[in-house]
Amino acid sequence: MALCGTTNVTKMMAAYNGGSSAVAAHHPHHHHQLQHLPPPHMHHHHHHHQQHQHHLQPQLDIEPDRPIGYGAFGVVWSVTDPRDGKRVALKKMPNVFQNLVSCKRVFRELKMLCFFKHENVLSALDILQPPHIDYFEEIYVVTELMQSDLHKIIVSPQALSSDHAKVFLYQILRGLKYLHSAGILHRDIKPGNLLVNSNCVLKICDFGLARVEETDEARHMTQEVVTQYYRAPEILMGSRHYSNSIDIWSVGCIFAELLGRRILFQAQSPIQQLDLITDLLGTPSMEAMRTACEGARAHIVRGPHKQASLPVLYTLSSQATHEAVHLLCRMLVFDPSKRISAKDALAHPYLDEGRLRYHTCMCKCCYTTSSGRVYTSDFEPVTTPKFDDGFEKNLSAVRQVKEIIHQFILEQQKGSRVPLCINPQSAAFKSFISSTVAQPSEMPPSPLVWE
């Protein structure tokens, strides 16, 4: 996976002589192979538009299709969009209307996927036509198809240069700055939720655990969030309130994992997870533990006093330079109020090269003309207004939410494109229908109950 060269910035586009940018979506065995980064003007696919676009509801014919992932609350398949022949991802959200909690969570995720407009955040391209409301049980969302994810890439034998680390970290933080500006906490940032294409473009996905930030500190927030290895110390210590800085902790863990090609804090239990963190950061001050529950504070206080051992981060790999470790240490801060924000992290000099590379030959916000590259005025955009979750306030019954979601999907489709529906006759559909969601082991484990 060679990246486009940044040897001479002004000649960056001209100097590019990258390899083919064939998309690997059809070839499962190519999945982890990240290819050269072509300049953007080289990969516009000219699809022959179908002649019969006036026929209503072309069916999503799932022929050579296959499951590509199992998320917290859904199954994802790769399919062909019959309107333009493009491969897309189709996510099935099953058993949506089992109970009110499930209804609300799915509606929130659906609203978010339709709200997002950012290159480093996965968003809904379409939602399939729902059947008559009496038969409405699952929701199918179409998103862009990505070829791999950061977990698969990190565990693969493929070489990752410091340029890869920079361009991946840049995009993670760029997407996170956007999400946080919308007032959204992702709450499950981990390598498997960072989708990556063969040209190294990265998108944050899986908003099944995401929520709007809680400004009232008296209101309790669930602790059943974030896969354990990436879980911030305040959640491990039973804090009943937390902020978007939990996502930054997760990014710090991933940054270290990109550098060292292994999980930074890989513990067997939440208590051991906390102990591994304090082995590295040292014993936290009482001030840093102010939001923790009593039992967790007692565990730290009665344990041995530990000195910080942060210089050990230099041993992650030869890519763990002074700049890299400096930024990493700003993310892996015990006290959430002192942890760096996504916006400030993006201003760190370590990410200058990642920004340059991304906007020179990967992004869609800048473009190339005959006289050179035209750069956007805003490299890391935010969103205004924020995502509004006020719609959740009055949801009180399953049937009511079902009707609202049904109407929401129909309204999403007004006039934009020919609506799509599933082809129930296709062989793949029957297998798709019966496919299940993630097993309990893949879910974030339950929180620790501190005595």
UniProtKB/TrEMBL annotation:
Enzymatic reactions: L-threonyl-[protein] + ATP = O-phospho-L-threonyl-[protein] + ADP + H(+); L-seryl-[protein] + ATP = O-phospho-L-seryl-[protein] + ADP + H(+)
Protein kinase domain sequence ranges: 62-351
User: Residue ranges under compositional bias (Basic residues)?
Assistant: 41-55
Q: Outline the segment boundaries, as ranges, of region: Disordered.
A: 22-58
Superkingdom of origin: Eukaryota
* One Gene Ontology CC term in the entry: nucleus
What cofactors does this protein use?
Answer: Mg(2+)
Q: Does the keyword DNA repair apply?
A: no
- Which keywords accompany this UniProt record? ATP-binding, Cytoplasm, Kinase, Magnesium, Metal-binding, Nucleotide-binding, Nucleus, Phosphoprotein, Serine/threonine-protein kinase, Transcription, Transcription regulation, Transferase, Wnt signaling pathway
Q: Which SMART domains match?
A: S_TKc
Tell me, what controls this protein's activity?
Activated by threonine and tyrosine phosphorylation.
Keyword ATP-binding assigned: yes
Single Gene Ontology MF annotation: ATP binding
- Enzyme Commission number, as recorded: 2.7.11.24
Q: For binding ATP, which residues are annotated in this chain's numbering?
A: 91
**Any one GO biological process:** regulation of signal transduction
Broad class of the protein's primary localization: cytoplasm
Task: Quote the PANTHER family the UniProt record gives.
Answer: MITOGEN-ACTIVATED PROTEIN KINASE
Q: What is this protein called?
A: Mitogen-activated protein kinase
